[in-house]
Amino acid sequence: MNLALIGIVAALTSAASWALGSILFKKIGEKVSPFGMTLSKGILGIVLLGFAYAANGFEFVTFNAAGMLFVSGVIGIAVGDTLFFASLQDLGPKVQIIFFMMGQVMTAMLGLLILKEMPLLLQWIGIVITLLGAVTVLWKKIFSSAENKKTGLRGVVFGLLAMFCFSFSLIIAKHAMKDITPLSAVFIRMTAGTIGILTYGLIKRKVRAWLNPFHDLKMAAFFFVSVCIVTFGGFWLSHVSIKFLDVAVAYTLGATEPLFVLPLALIILKERITLTEFIGAVLTACGVIIIIIGSG
């Protein structure tokens, strides 16, 4: 079986799941703080992954691998997810997802420096093309009005910090996943991230306030569905992809979310698709095709 093909399919399916999850989390974020979303997603994710982990069978994980995954989880989930949710509220799902394609350059550089993974020429060309779409959409979002400039720039700062956390944490996870399954890796990372954000909440005595909105059962049910989608469809499959592909390639394929978020935003949020957003999505598609050709 072609392991690279498995990685490509996993990455693209993960992208579609993240696109849907971002739209759902945008609606939830109107009532729940970024910290509350991170903590609640982590708790529910641990329960869901725990059942899957138990059904699949526990495996031995070395202390060194567990330590790296724990650090990766705190950086990528406790810190990265919180920054991601904060950025999402400022930029909106369509713009943020396209903007987050810029994380490919950051991941590629970290992968080159730490893992010595050198993307091929075609893969580099694909990465550059995807970035063009991000710049085009982001420029219009920020400079369309004074209000957008303020919230947009704030969203960009949160987004850049989130991208660094995601990229760096994936590099650490990639190194630790050499001898263990993606399910074990994602379970350990999710647990570590949840412990990290819970510890912060307890110190600040904010946990009760973060979780108060979930007293609304309709909100809790909506959140449950959203977490299921991003935990198994997005989070777990992203780990499958980075196990079988170079980090830069897997992360870039995962950034095809704009191809999915535009029609989903139209259907769910009733948001009009602008020409700029369409061009950004087309550029992303071209970049992905080049990356897949380069990976073959």
Describe this structure in words.
With 296 residues, the chain is mainly α. The chain has one domain (3-295). Helix content is 84%, strand content 0%. The chain is globular and about 45 Å long. The mean pLDDT is 82.
What is this entry, summarized?
With 296 residues, this protein is mainly alpha-helical. It has helices at 3-28, 34-56, 63-91, 93-99, 103-115, 121-143, 146-176, 182-204, 207-211, 217-244, 247-254, 257-269, 275-295.
Helix/strand layout:
Elements: H1 3-28, H2 34-56, H3 63-91, H4 93-99, H5 103-115, H6 121-143, H7 146-176, H8 182-204, H9 207-211, H10 217-244, H11 247-254, H12 257-269, H13 275-295
Helix pairs in contact: 1-10, 1-11, 1-12, 2-3, 2-8, 2-10, 3-4, 3-7, 3-8, 4-6, 4-12, 5-7, 5-11, 6-7, 6-13, 8-10, 10-11
Radius of gyration: 18 Å
The rounded distance between the terminal residues' Cα atoms is 14 Å
SSE-based structural type? mainly alpha
Number of strands: 0
Which strand-content bin applies to the residues? Answer: under 5%
Q: Judging from the principal axes of the Cα atoms, what is the shape? A: globular
